[in-house]
């Protein structure tokens, strides 16, 4: 399972298991030449099942186990803080990342619950349906959500048909709303850059002037 986990973590083809075993066998004689049980070690390595189908089966079993552990931890948590991030991939498909932060004992965890496709649209009701489907797949109780972080778009925070309003109607209790600070920083940078747009131009002119002639450069450095 460790080799299968290594292959999956590095995003390598599942067929690389046989390549790894071949590489290990090619170095066995030099690595274990002074081991009294060298032949037994080589035999164990040669009998190690690392075919493509075996690696695939082990990766699927590990993924299923991780998913089950996540579901168990989510069910034990008393409350959640939810973060939603909507973006578009390179194929122009809209995706919604559903992230939950919760406590397991004394440890705080933040896990990606699901990346849902918003094929029907990006309105509040579409986001609501995607989130509720993600909660249903993990057997998560929506009423445990106490806060929601979003990018502040109308589809998220709209007073009548925004996602948060629809979610509050479903859970029948208010939630604390947070605005994503990264989005705020982007807006701040965009607005503030207008006030300093002449600074890069002046700096570029100065640098170009100094490097245009050797005399200018030597006078500046001296």
TrEMBL record:
Highest taxon in the source lineage: Eukaryota
Protein known as: Uncharacterized protein
């Amino acid at each position: 399972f460790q080799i299968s986990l290594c292959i999956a973590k590095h995003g390598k083809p599942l067929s690389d298991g046989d390549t790894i075993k071949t590489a290990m066998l090619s170095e066995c004689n030099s690595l274990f030449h002074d081991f009294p049980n060298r032949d037994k070690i080589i035999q164990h390595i040669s009998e190690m099942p690392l075919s493509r189908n075996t690696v695939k089966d082990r990766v699927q079993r590990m993924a299923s186990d991780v998913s089950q552990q996540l579901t168990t931890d989510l069910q034990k948590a008393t409350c959640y803080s939810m973060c939603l991030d909507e973006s578009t991939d390179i194929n122009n498909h809209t995706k919604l990342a559903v992230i939950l932060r919760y406590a397991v004992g004394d440890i705080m965890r933040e896990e990606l619950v699901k990346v849902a496709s918003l094929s029907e649209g990006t309105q509040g009701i579409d986001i609501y349906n995607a989130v509720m489907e993600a909660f249903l797949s993990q057997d998560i109780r929506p009423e445990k959500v106490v806060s929601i972080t979003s990018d502040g778009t109308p589809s998220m925070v709209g007073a009548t048909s925004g996602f948060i309003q629809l979610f509050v109607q479903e859970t029948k209790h208010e939630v604390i709303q947070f605005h994503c600070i990264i989005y705020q920083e982007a807006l701040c940078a965009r607005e503030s850059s207008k006030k300093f747009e002449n600074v890069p131009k002046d700096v570029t002119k100065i640098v170009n002037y100094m490097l245009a002639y050797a005399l200018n450069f030597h006078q500046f450095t001296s």
